[in-house]
Automatic annotation (TrEMBL):
The keyword Transmembrane applies. Signal peptide: none annotated. The keyword Transmembrane helix applies. It comes from Waltera acetigignens. Coiled coil: none annotated. The chain crosses the membrane at residues 21-43, 63-87, 115-136, 178-205, 212-230, 253-273. This is ABC-2 family transporter protein. Keywords: Membrane, Transmembrane, Transmembrane helix.
Amino acid sequence: MLIKVIKKQTIFLLKQKEASLTFILLLAVVLGNYITNVLTFRGTDVSQMYQPMKLLALSLNKVYFSANIQLLIVMIYPILVAVPAGFSYTKEQQTKEEVYMIYRLGKNRYLQSKLWASFFTTTIVFTVPFMLEILMNMLSFPMNAIRDLSNLSIYNTDYATMVHNYIGSAIYIASPGLYAILATLFFGVVSGILGTLPVAISFVLTVKYRTLLILPTFVLLNATTYLNILDRNRSSLSWYKYLLLFDDTPKNIIVPLMGVGIIIITIFGFYLYGRNKDKW
């Protein structure tokens, strides 16, 4: 029963203007990046061609050539990640649909389905456009191209160090395509978790203006960048160094895992509070 409700709510949320507009915007970013790559590298000999996965919109390796798309993604992502599903519970509160849904499903099942539907909706919206770009790059560019946009030789020790700094570098060495797919799935899943946070917060707080629900993810993600600037050890803390592909700076994988774990625990805590709010 719960799975059926989650499926219906996910389909409903995907049809809403917030999810549709976010999907269209991301698709436009992907198509813009793809067309730019095609126009720039058409006719390039395979020996001079860059590895196609490093040309992706999510690829930080692309900043060695042009950083326009990546800067755009870094700027809009903290806002955009809350848009597909973040306002869904507040909307139903304001339209009184919440009362009807609780009557039909029970409060516990309703809140659970709302969280899961928000997660799946955001994950789909932030995964599909970038998966399409991977497919288009695989079909349009030679996958046996090996050059890096830093223009370092693959036999250079600095290049080897850069690749070693990729999260899951062994997968990249074995198959750049598989690496890009798995990294994009990770990006989508973490986006789904972040997109669920505003929904969980709205279980606890009554928000008059829906756009205020953008603030938690905006502040949280940008705080990692500010902390990275203040960190004297210059360790990688910025969210985009872990979520985007092919960042070649040293990292500590515990940092993102702890961050995601804390967010999940927070969401669960808000869910428990919201479920029992009327009983206290």
